[in-house]
């Protein structure tokens, strides 16, 4: 049997949005792709990606569970290949006052956005290190730069990913493995609907960023080995830069105006 000549990229949260566009970007740039998500849309994404000429493996798993991450890792090992790239993109949002939100929803967010990212990265990283090459992309958010009222666990989870990515990148030094953090702003995906944020100023924005453009920016930063990239429009870069000189209470107050339920009115 002839060994595959194309490198392998693993993308989570790949059934729609930024993850779907990342998978497409990898496939159109010479990678085979192993894509993972929980929903049935993954099958349609896989069929479309096969049209690029890439070999596509689709794995439907619930990454908010320990067993789901292990199942995905088993699928990666079953390919017999060490991924050249791992895009840890799966995530959810929860909107509303923390004291009123369902605890199970909040804990599921932490499990998916934080725990599964650490779990999967830790599983895949040793093989990359053994080979002396690899690229890891973590999808954070510009929400990582300050407190996020009415999306408290979401903003905190994205801050965790930003810090985690920067720390692991520094540890890896000159091993040949790099970590890049992607920080999108409001993007035109189903995120705001799923997080029930359509009545917020953020959710009601009409000029959200194109997920294909955000994916392009993330992919190019990953391939260039950059530590971090703010995705989307110049607006996001300005917000991220300005946050460096603001106190946390000021940032929280400003964010509240964008994320408070009913603020769209």
Protein described:
There is one protein chain. With 265 residues, this protein is α/β, with parallel strands linked by helices. The protein has a 7-stranded parallel sheet, with helices on both faces. Strand 2, helix 2 and strand 3 (56-60) form a beta-alpha-beta unit. It has one domain (8-259): Rossmann fold. The protein has 10 helices and 7 strands.
What is the CATH C level class, in words? Alpha Beta
- N-end to C-end Cα span: 62 Å
The average pLDDT is 94
Query: What is the strand content?
Result: 5-15%
Rg: 18 Å
Query: Considering the protein shown, what is the CATH homologous superfamily?
Result: NAD(P)-binding Rossmann-like Domain
Uncertain stretches of 5 or more adjacent residues:
none
Overall shape? globular
Q: In which order are the strands of the major sheet placed? A: 3-2-1-4-5-6-7
Number of helices: 10
Largest sheet: 7 strands, parallel
Write the CATH fold name: Rossmann fold
- Secondary-structure element sequence? EHEHEHEHEHEHHHEHH
Please give the CATH architecture: 3-Layer(aba) Sandwich
Number of domains: 1
Say how many strands there are.
7
From the helix content, strand content and strand pairing, which structural class follows?
alpha/beta
What features would you highlight for this structure?
single chain; 265 residues; alpha/beta; Rossmann fold; seven-stranded parallel sheet; 10 helices; 7 strands
Give me the secondary-structure topology:
Blueprint: E1 8-12, H1 17-27, E2 32-37, H2 41-50, E3 56-60, H3 66-78, E4 85-88, H4 103-131, E5 134-139, H5 152-172, E6 177-183, H6 191-194, H7 201-204, H8 211-223, E7 228-230, H9 234-242, H10 248-259
Parallel strand pairs: 1-2, 1-4, 2-3, 4-5, 5-6, 6-7
